[in-house]
Amino acid sequence: MATKLSFTFQFPLEKSSKSFQRNPNLALSDPNHCDGFGFSKKSSGFRGQLSLKENALQGEVTQSTNSETTLLSPTSLPSSSKLVLVVGGTGGVGQLVVAALLKRNIKSRLLLRDPEKAVSLFGNQDEEKLQIFKGDTRNPADLDPSMFEGVTHVICCTGTTAFPSKRWDGDNTPERVDWEGVRNLISALPLSLKRVVLVSSVGVTKFNELPWSIMNLFGVLKYKKKGEDFLRESGLPFTIIRAGRLTDGPYTSYDLNTLLQATAGQRRAVVIGQGDKLVGEVSRLVVAEACIQALDIEFTEGKIYEINSVEGEGPGTDPEKWQQLFKTPQT
User: Fold this and answer.
1) What angle do CA 263, 178, 237 make, to 5 degrees?
2) How far apart are CA 54 and CA 70, in angstroms?
3) 3-class state of residue 72 by DSSP
């Protein structure tokens, strides 16, 4: 049975006095200290090499002349009527999704096996901004309809390692997580949702071919593809983001303030493809941003995209640039 947990959360940034009302005002700051995702340029952005600025809790917002966007202040950000359910919100990509949603003042709900992880990562948040439900997608009985009440969008970034590791402890295998867990979640979701974004992997259509068959020795690509197919056939409005090899992080031992300072380093340019032809790496920050951007781009509904990141200037958090990237994928 799913359990809703109440925490007395205090977000370290000032909360808007008008919840969920769009505010067009943006405060401007110096663009030279942040990368395109609003994170500090001072760090290398790989495997937790991060820097913290003294005023990190005062994160300000900029849209610079070179199209880089810095930290957005919740008092100046447009609020949202969305309620986004994030599944896998304490994982390598999921925690960055949650941090970005909080930064945007988008109300979020997390479905977690261990809610205490949310407190350690995101701090004490107001329940109007972040709600926590205890549940395990591998157990259908945990997915009570009450946890989906009011939810408008879902981002699912659950996953485990391709090869046996400590993360497999407790029956956390690709079959249980990437197939059975995804199937159980999709089966429980209401058809009223506006979008379901599923994070998957490049190579899922070629798991019997070299070199993908090596990665698929324990079935991770096969089970991810089964999860994709179940979503495609569910009748739910979906977008599937197939990520290349993930880099930058995971930042699983840090807190929200550190997450907001994470950076993609020089790999900020984004390459989007279709047809499962892309081969390469992608920053977890880029994957997280792609998931959030896809929620509002109507023509991404019913589509599957592959995503990599390369050296160069990227779209940051600019919706128009992301629309153009999704509109003209490599095929």
Assistant:
1) 80
2) 15
3) coil
